[in-house]
Specification:
ligase; ATP binding; phosphoribosylformylglycinamidine cyclo-ligase activity; 60s Ribosomal Protein L30, Chain: A; single chain; PurM-like_N_sf; 6-stranded mixed β-sheet; 4-stranded mixed β-sheet; alpha+beta; Phosphoribosyl-aminoimidazole Synthetase, Chain A, domain 2; 24% strand; Phosphoribosylformylglycinamidine cyclo-ligase; 14 strands; globular
């Protein structure tokens, strides 16, 4: 009798036992990223959140957002550092939620790998869980998918989705923005998670730099600079809305400051932002210089040192700056809201960056 030579899941590269091991390793971190409203634990087919908590709202609006980290995951892979990329994922999702004034409630994640290395997957989830703690939301579940043949053994990607809630009459947006409002810039921690296709091209293909190259201007290696986690602003923004009057926020991601701020400026108004009010971190200048990237292209691609914008009435400026300073976050008045008049653009950047 011939031996059974039938195909198996393991033969094509999917290791169920490794996946189970990864789940066991990540449970410790997921338990730390919770809220009182979470029902049950990790391992169910769906995450459960007690919606009766929303009864305190008159008219609760649920907000939803989803995002990934982009090609920054390649930096993490090459450096073998997997426990920070989750901060980026959470920041990209929850800070889209808070722009409308929504409090992030919970997140789910999706991790796609070429091969499951349990410790590596657990490290990614650890970063996501830590990010959720920083954002004040729960991590209620997720999925790890093994895709041999589509991804190399060391390759991976991450994505996430989040849900938040805001009272209908407290919803923030363009309809609240008024002439005379101040534009407050909230400092970025670095490049965050946008523009890495350009950044990687400049540093690796054009300049031939290595990740372990020490860069005096950065005060660390290139890899350490590029892997700096995205700042998570959700609790800072919520602290502002609970302390003083806020008319709007803008999360500065792909498209840069002008394009993202324009999304919350009504058609009849115009925002001016003075570049001289801040000095971008050295990494932005270095990308521009090494790649011969024009300033407009840099500003369309990178955050240039501003990760979030708060638009507040003039009488709220001092309180807003004080609240953010108390929370250890650099912030400054960067511009104002004016009548549009015959201006073609919703947002205008003026002056030159401080040096």
């Amino acid at each position: 009798m011939s031996e059974n030579t039938g195909a198996s899941y393991a033969d094509v590269g999917v290791d169920i036992e490794a996946g189970d091991r990864a789940v066991e390793l990540m449970k410790e971190w997921v338990r730390k990223a919770t809220r009182p409203e979470v029902v049950g634990g990790l391992g169910g087919f769906a995450g459960l959140f007690d919606a009766s908590a929303l009864k305190r709202y008159e008219r609760p609006l649920l907000a939803s957002a989803t995002d990934g980290v982009g090609t920054k995951v390649d930096i993490a892979r090459k450096m073998g550092v997997y426990d920070t990329i989750g901060h980026d994922l959470v920041g990209m999702v929850v800070d889209d939620l808070v722009v409308c004034g929504a409090e992030p409630l919970f997140m789910t994640d999706y991790i796609c790998v070429g091969k499951v290395f349990p410790e590596r997957v657990a490290a990614i989830v650890k970063g996501i869980a830590e990010g959720c703690v920083l954002a004040g939301c729960a991590l209620v579940g997720g999925e790890t998918a093994e895709h041999p043949g589509l991804l190399g053994a060391d390759e991976f990607d991450v994505a996430g989705a989040g849900t938040g809630v805001v009272e209908a009459d407290q919803l923030l947006g363009a309809d609240r923005i008024r002439k005379g409002d101040a534009v407050i810039a909230l400092a970025a921690s670095g490049l965050h998670s946008n523009g890495y296709s350009l950044v990687r091209h400049v540093f690796f293909e054009r300049a031939g730099w290595s990740l372990d190259r020490a860069v005096p201007e950065f005060g660390r290696t290139l890899g350490e600079e590029l892997l700096e986690p995205t700042r998570i602003y959700s609790l800072d923004c919520l602290a502002l809305t609970r302390t003083t009057e806020v008319h709007g926020f803008s999360h500065i991601t792909g498209g840069g400051l002008a394009n993202n701020l324009a999304r919350v400026v009504p058609d009849h108004l115009h925002a001016t932002v003075d570049r001289s009010s801040w000095q971008p971190a050295p990494v932005f200048h270095t990308v521009g210089e090494l790649g011969s990237v024009e300033r407009l292209e840099l500003e369309k691609t990178l955050n240039m040192g501003v990760g979030m914008i708060a638009v507040v009435p003039q009488e709220s400026v001092d309180v807003a700056l004080s609240v953010l300073a108390d929370r250890g976050l650099g912030a400054w008045v960067a511009g104002e809201i004016l009548e549009r008049g015959d201006r073609a653009e919703a947002v205008e950047l003026t002056g030159d960056y401080a040096s």
